[in-house]
Amino acid sequence: MTNRNINLESRQRYFWLLLCVLVVMIGSYFYFVHQSIAVVVDQEAIKRRLNETGAVNARLESTYIRASSKITMELASERGFTDPTFDSSFAYLDRAERLALGGVSNER
After folding, report:
1. Which of the pair, 34 or 102, is modelled with greater confidence?
2. C-alpha angle 17/4/7, rounded to 5°?
3. Alpha carbon distance 108, 47 (integer Å)
4. In Å, what is the CA distance from 66 to each residue of 63, 70, 74?
5. Average pLDDT score over residue span 17-36
6. Which residues, 6 or more positions from 106, have their beta carbon under 8 angstroms from its beta carbon?
7. For residue 108, what pLDDT is reported?
8. Could you tell me where the DSSP H helices lie in 1-108?
9. 8 A C-beta contact, residue 93 and residue 101
10. What's this model's pTM, rounded to 2 decimal places?
11. What pLDDT is recorded for position 39?
12. pLDDT digits over 33-90, tens only?
């Protein structure tokens, strides 16, 4: 068995290396703790903003429902809207057009 003799210069080098590693680890610890706290604070702000946005959305929906219930045919005609007098119909494809479009089904 051989004995290793560590001289003073090597000890000093190891000491400074370990000290630097320790400083980096402590700095990393504080950095990551700070980041974790920042994420929690941001999440709380996002939750609060989401609740506020939901409340605004609910108020807008209720306003819309109240406004849409007030619309009548009389009000629409006063504002210049007319009831459509034409019969709406759909365009149907004949057999040749269906075949040209790759067999799109549009039965009458």
Report:
1. 34
2. 50
3. 52
4. 5, 7, 17
5. 97
6. 92, 93, 98
7. 46
8. 8-69, 73-78, 95-100
9. yes
10. 0.47
11. 96
12. 999 999 999 999 999 999 999 999 999 999 999 988 888 888 888 888 887 776 666 6
| Closest to 50 (Cα-Cα) out of 62, 61, 40, 42 | 42
Q: Which two tokens stand for residue 103?
A: 């067999």
| Residues present in the chain in total | 108
Of 1, 19, 3, nearest to 11 by C-alpha is 19
The CA-based angle 51-57-58, given to 5 degrees, is 90
**Side chain identity at 12, as an amino acid letter?**
Q
What distance in Å separates the CA atoms of residue 51 and residue 49, rounded to the nearest whole number?
5
Query: For the CA atoms of the chain, what is the radius of gyration?
Result: 38
The two three-digit tokens of residue 14, written as one number: 């190891």
Give the type of residue at 11. R
Q: Which two tokens stand for residue 31?
A: 């950095």
- Mean pLDDT value of segment 85-103: 67
